[in-house]
Structures are given as structure tokens and as C-alpha cells.
Amino acid sequence: MQALRIATLLFFAAFCNVAAAQPLYGIAMHGDPALAADYTHFPYVNPNVKKGGRISYGVVGTFDNLNPFILKSMRTTARGMWDPDYGNLVYESLMQRSRDEPFTLYGLLAQTVEWDESRSFIQFNLNPNAKWSDGQPVTPEDVIFTFELLRDKGRVVFSSPLQTVDKMEKVGEHGVRIHFNDKANRETPLIIATLPILPKHATDPESFDRTTLALPIGSGPYKVKSIDPGQRIIYQRDPDYWGKDIPTKVGVDNYDEISVTYFLQETTLFEAFKKGDIDIYPDGSPGHWQDAYDFPAATSGAVIKDVFKPKLPSGMFGFVFNTRRPIFADKKVRQGLTLAFDFEWVNRSLSSNAYTRTQSYWQNSDLSSLGVPADARELAMLGPIKDRIDPDVLDGTYRLPVSDGSGRDRAILRKAVDLLKEGGYTIKGEKMVDSAGRQLSFEIMTQNPDQERIAIAYRRSLALLGIAVTIRTVDDSQYQLRTISFDYDMILKAYPSSLSPGIEQVGRWSSAAAKAEGSLNFAGVADPDVDTLMEHFLAAHSAEDFRDAVRSFDRILISGYYVLPLYHIGQQWVARRSRIAHPDVLPLYGYQLPAWWDASVQ
Q1: How many other β-carbons are positioned within 10 Å of the β-carbon of residue 258?
Q2: For residue 589, which of 520, 496, 507 has the smallest C-alpha distance?
Q3: Could you tell me the pTM of the whole model?
Q4: How far apart, in whole angstroms, are the C-alpha atoms of residue 582 and residue 597?
């Protein structure tokens, strides 16, 4: 009896200890955060930087809206409000992502968090010092209000994760607990932690989904100083910013003033950089990077060219087949059109052989299926879906064909013709036609001269097969309207890849996203097996299961021929004015502009 009493007491003591577990300063998708609880800053910032000065960014496009969270602002919002490149200057999330770890979050508006082993809920304990720019405190009511508003009126990228919320409740004075329904997965709490938070007292739900140029109230390090609609927006540091000394904000947000200027064309933007009106110029063209920097500022040292080598997967950049169009509904047609692109000729003729052919969505990482046969664990994970994976993709021998570089490799073009024949097309009278005699023809919509050059090269190869291609280069606003409504045959798109793929893949490839206007499912993929394989990596507990699940997903995307793969570099090229400096440490995800500073400040 005494032994039973002791065992009972030990059980309840253990239970109480679990229930009273200490709140967490950071959370990771898999494993534990790399930084200790007493960390003082991220490893890739300069914690001793002297803040001040200014930075001038340049972008191609325009803007007519300061609300980045609604459908109408997909490409016309003012950059910097909520920005993956320049930083979230005005609005903030509950937690901040470290760019030196695959997917780890540390405290921002939320000082600490709590969750259970199954991740059925997450509780955010707000920093009691967090304030809006008008001095009002950030409250649990703000969090609940925001999530309800974004769920009902936000863009898909914001509204979709919130469909997994079962209920929200205030806990104490500073806490808010989010309970999840059966639509949630293990990544869901982390995604919720990265959503923006809006001030309830300064946000009108009725007009939220309309464009606006009203100056916003946020909790971030900057306020909007002035706007010139469509032309320029200027941000000014908030001297009363509440979070300037918390670890996740040390060494970032280093300028007193940040301006973003809009240009109609890339060439005009570069000319502004050459003159000194713009301070940073990320360059993605090998030929341009090699030949365009012979102007006085570059030769004198006033402009510096930096090359960064992040440890990122390749991602995917290529021609996207809109499978909503009947001409691209057949996989054999897409496969044949893929083989017709002569990468070796294009790489030599247009890019001085600077590029590497991309053949996997996670190439150059352990998550890639390229060259890796599916093992017993992955085959079990795939189940009957393995029969839909091309045999060479499944056994790791898949490679896109290497041409002779002539631009008319007969052997490869013959294979392309055979695949198109399987898809219902034959060559008659020097035209590729279907059974009704209609010529295979489609339009490629491009955004800029670089894309247009690639499209012209592709059209050249397709003309050899009797396929008629038109190319239309449109302005930014027209491109936005047509991509939102999926009004195109083929476009060029980049699909960046991380070392922790998750819910963003649902937005790109899921059946639900294929039907949602404004989603990022540009290819129109609506395949239950693709949905299933996404569920696998979203639900993975161990790093090994996660790796194999992503490889399986990589295989089905490759086998589906939804994107004609083009190329990648493996480097990041950035030109900058010499007074703009950056830390010596390069994080996992590459250079981080919010950690750069104006070195002319004394």
C-alpha cells in the first residue's frame, strides 16, 4: 500500500511538472532551437553597428496601396510594409524567424510561447512592453481580431493557415491561446506565429479589403514618412520603437531613413543605380554581372560587387504550363515540350555557359531526389502513388537530356515528337496538329527583356517542330491582373526552395489553391496524390521522415512535368554603394538586407 501511495504521488508530481513547464523562448519545426535561452542576437548581425544614415532601394513596378494583406495588393502594395527582402518595417509578427536555421522562431511580439507535444495548441505570451506606433499596447485582443480579419478578408497566403484554427482565447493579461482543428499539421503553429498582427483600435474591418493610401499604425521599427503614389515611399525610424533592444532586433533596422523608388523598367532602375540614386542592385543576369559594371563609380571603387554563396537548395525557375488549358492537360505533351528546349544552346548563346541546369526542386540539398533511389522507407511512404512516379525518377537515374548544343539536336527532337504523338499530335505539312487538324500553338507571357530573350530562344526550337508560339511582354499591372485570374498559357516563374518546405507548398501545388483566384498555384495542379504527399512532410515528426517525404514530393512534381526546368547559379550577386556595409557572417539563407548599414555614419 505504501509503495502504491508513493507511485501515485510520483505520477501526480510528474503530471504537475509537465503542466507547469516553463514557457519557451524559441521553437523549431524539427528538434530544438540552435541558440541558447540567453542569446543576445542572431549570429549573422553586427550587434555593435552604429545606427543612422539612409538606404535607397529600387524596384520595378508601381503601387497604389499600403495594405499588403489583401488580394488587390498582390503586386501593387508599397514595398517594405511587410517585406521578405527589406524587412517588415511597419507590421510585425508574434515571432521572428532565424535565417541561419531551417525553420526556427524566436520571440518578437510574443516574449515566450507554450505548446503541447502534439501541437494541438500554441499559446503566445505577449511582451508587456510591445506597443503600437501611437503608444497603445499590443494586446491579446489585437491578436484575436487580426486572425479573424485575415481569415475572412486576407489574401490566401494569410487566410489559408487560419482555416485550421478551432478557437482562440485570452489567457491572463498578456496571453492568447490558439486551438487547432483537424486541418492543422505540425507546421501550423509556426506559420501562425509568423503572421502579421494589426491594431484593432486602428483597423476598420468593413473597409479592410479595399485599397488605401492612409498612413498605417504598426508596431514595427519604422513609420511611413511620406508617399508619392506609384513612385516612391519613404520610411522613417520610430525613435520610440518598443523592441529595439530585444535579441531578435539587435543589429537590424539600422537606417534612420529607408526609401523605395519604383521604375517602369529594369534598365531605368540600373541607370538610377549607376548615378547613385539607388544604393543596392541585386543582379541575376550573368551577362549583365560580367559586362555592365564599367561605369565610373564601379571602376573607382564607389560601387562594390559582392558574391555570396548561401547553403540553399536550387529552387526551380522555368516555364510554367497552365494545365487549366486543354493544350497542356496531357502530361505527354508537357514532357515533349520540355525535351524541345535546348538548354545547352541557350546557356552558351545567351549566358556564356554561366548556368547549371535545374533538375530538382531541392537540388544541391539532402532533400532532393536527384540521384537518390527511393529506399524502403520512402517506398512505404509513397504506397500505391509510387506507380505514378516515372521509373527513372523513382530509381534516381532521371536526368534531362544533354543536347549537342546545336540548337537542333535531331535525336532529342525526335523523342519530343514521339511524346507529342502520344499526346495526340502529329506533323502534317510542317505543322504539329491534333486529330482535328488544329496546329499546336500557345502564348508565352513575359515580364521583362531577359524573360523575353529566353522565350524567343524556346520559340526557335519549337518552330522546328511546327509549333506556333507567340510572345507577349506586358507591363506590371497587366501581369498582375492576368496572373491573379490565371489568364495565360505559359509564364516564367521562380519557385524558391527552403530547407524546411511547408505550408507555402500547399499554396503552390494543392487542389484547393488551383481553384483560388490569386493563389500561387500557377500551374493549376489539382491532383489528390500531390495533396497526399504534401500532407506527409507537413505531418513528419522526425528529420528522417521529413527528408524522405520531401523527396517523394520532389519526385511527383518532376514526374508531372508541370514546369519546364531552366537553370540556377548557386550564388547571389549584389552591387552596392561603398558606404553601405554588411556583416562578415553569411547565414544559411544568404545575405539579409535588414542587417546591412550605412558605414558613413560616424
Answers
A1: 26
A2: 496
A3: 0.82
A4: 6
